[in-house]
Amino acid sequence: MIGPLLPAARVRAGGEESEQRRPAGLDSRVAALCLAALLLIGALMGSLNLLVDGVLRDGAGRWAYASTMLLLFALSGHLACRGRVGQAHTFGLVLLGDVIYLVVVLCIQDPLRYATPLMLLFPALAGAWFLPLRPLCVHMVATTGICLAALWPSYDSAVGLVVQAGVSACTLNAAAMGVFVLRRRVQRLLVATETISHQDALTGLYNRRYLVEQAPRLWGQARRDGTQLSAMVLDLDHFKRLNDEFGHAVGDAVLRAVARSLSGAVRPADLLARTGGEELVVVGSVAVVAEGRRLAERLRLAVAGARSEDGHAVTASVGIAVARPVEGEDPVAALWRLIDRADAAMYVAKRSGRDRVALADRPRSRATHAEPATWQRGHPAGSVARPETSRAVGSADL
Q: For residue 66, is it within any domain?
């Protein structure tokens, strides 16, 4: 299976945890508008009984019925204006729908003709689509009790009451459970589709599309925390030679082994993605440049220590660039500028002998691109080996 290579917490966030938080964000607004529409439709349809003679009981019954319809209109308007609803509120509205049906029954002269249990389809379907399983089961039990209470005055025989209430409750609950199962199926398909769209099929890592989608979040988080963002581009050394000599199946196995090793080496908050071929990108926040440099070295060692099942291994050339987010800039464009700088540094590492890390200079302007600095495996900590064409970079520039 490829999926387990994704960080477990992120997979859960797209699956089971999303069900526990539902409705939230956009889902919360959709739920609020749908519930508002159901309340409005119920109020409009129920209000028609006020215009028909002989349907409602005279006196207090008519006034109670009219007040109930006004309550539905008010709740509908409130939800539409508020634009959001929590899970507890949704559960309360569904139970309120059951109680309102019982009030309607008590206000109508002939419930079997003008207030059949079919009216409970409104809360039943709302609960099935918006509630988790446990609250839905509570609602289904409440539906059974409401059917018994609503049909009680209309039947002299206990057997007839139980049969009719049972048929009505079973029909409503079966419809609710069917919609609930369908909803869960749709949710699983959506989660699977989203995972596929964000996941590299070979390695199980995130892909280029997910990297782009996360740019605003990464930029915003770095600005809030007052940190810098680092981008590391890793390119596997002599990977084409490996494919040519041993075949693409071996190359794929090595890529998967590298992905597993890097997944264990990156920090939990870092974003690791495969952007194409044998090129990988890691984006994360750092307090100082030295922190990013240490992480890049750790990733280089993780690649060197990765082994496929057949024992094949590769090394990686790593380029790293660091930038501080600026207010008003486009996060996606800024991210790719940062990655381009890291990519240029990676090529310097290639030219300097491979299996090493190169650090990109911070550009003094968009028109100026300084040559990256590199340091090699085996140099003392803090020492930097620079090619002759590289320009010296002080820590103040970084």
A: yes
